[in-house]
């Protein structure tokens, strides 16, 4: 790390992200690093971050925020097309990506971990022309997640998503999909479709225990039409790391996945907790294409 861009979402972490960023900046300055702090606004997008990377010739980007902020920074790095390592200090709500890579969800501890960080290469997903670091999903629960406002997130934390998601547990609506996983084409009906490179989903670690961040595979999870009792059973299986042992769940690995609706639904996907692309769309995995900072040996 020589030239470091620190990107801060000032609305994250009860607005404490900037304080944690300044603590890390103070430490890094003592070791002669060149550092630029950049605060995002509601209008900031990946192109703005990409331009900052190129302007200062950054070799490291450290994001202070939630999965949405980290997603934006990852997209910026991939589009910048230069060697930039991504570090994260999780001050969001679910912090899936941080959990996935072994970072503490305590921002103070995460800052300390970055002070002695090592590097690692992980996979990144591509949905159409949009990269994703954690998950791509379709269904009533992901749709409600898109609409959880900042104030509710700050007040209730992860519970905000669970409150909104619980409202949809009785929703029996399913979508008719035409899926092409690598060379296999199938027609399926799912109430929830999820694609990830991680075992952590909605803040739940080991939701898909067979998934790995660096195995070069997309992990597919499809939930068929289920009763409220079956959904409750699913949560028990999640806790036991047995999500692949249910007859109303489909789980598989693939390199590429094309998704379209059998009939037009006017639905958008959710990517890393925010609104994603419409359909049809093709998902790909780029094996070990993103270099990240992870906790080093203590």
From TrEMBL:
Domain DAGKc: 1-131
Protein name: Lipid kinase, YegS/Rv2252/BmrU family
Keyword annotations: ATP-binding, Kinase, Lipid biosynthesis, Lipid metabolism, Magnesium, Metal-binding, Nucleotide-binding, Phospholipid biosynthesis, Phospholipid metabolism, Transferase
Gene Ontology biological process terms, A to Z: phospholipid biosynthetic process
Cofactor(s) demanded: Mg(2+)
SUPFAM superfamilies membership: NAD kinase/diacylglycerol kinase-like
Any one of the GO CC terms: plasma membrane
Domain of life: Bacteria
TM annotation in the entry: none
């Amino acid at each position: 790390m020589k030239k470091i861009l620190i990107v801060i979402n000032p609305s994250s972490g009860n607005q404490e992200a900037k304080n944690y960023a300044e603590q890390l900046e103070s430490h890094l300055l003592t070791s002669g690093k060149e550092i630029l702090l950049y605060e995002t606004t509601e209008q900031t997008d990946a192109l703005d971050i990409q331009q900052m990377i190129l302007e200062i010739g950054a070799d490291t980007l450290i994001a202070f925020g939630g999965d949405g902020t980290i997603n934006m920074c990852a997209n910026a790095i991939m589009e910048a097309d230069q060697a930039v390592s991504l570090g994260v200090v999780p001050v969001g709500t679910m912090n899936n990506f941080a959990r996935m890579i072994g970072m503490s969800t305590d921002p103070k501890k995460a800052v300390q971990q970055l002070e002695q960080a090592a590097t690692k290469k992980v996979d990144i997903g591509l949905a159409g022309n949009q990269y994703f670091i954690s998950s791509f999903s379709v269904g009533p629960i992901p749709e409600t997640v898109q609409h959880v406002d900042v104030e509710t997130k700050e007040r209730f934390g992860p519970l905000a998503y669970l409150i909104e998601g619980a409202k949809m547990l009785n929703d029996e609506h399913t979508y008719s999909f035409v899926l092409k996983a690598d060379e296999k084409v199938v027609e399926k009906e799912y109430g929830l479709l999820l694609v990830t490179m991680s075992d952590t989903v909605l803040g739940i670690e080991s939701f898909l225990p067979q998934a790995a961040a660096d195995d070069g595979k997309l992990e597919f999870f499809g939930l068929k039409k289920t009763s409220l009792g079956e959904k409750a059973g699913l949560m028990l299986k999640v806790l036991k790391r047995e999500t692949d042992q249910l007859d109303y769940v489909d789980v598989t690995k693939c390199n590429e996945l094309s998704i379209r609706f059998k009939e037009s639904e006017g639905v958008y996907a959710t990517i890393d907790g925010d609104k994603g692309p419409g359909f049809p769309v093709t998902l790909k995995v780029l094996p070990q294409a993103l270099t990240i900072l992870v906790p080093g040996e203590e």
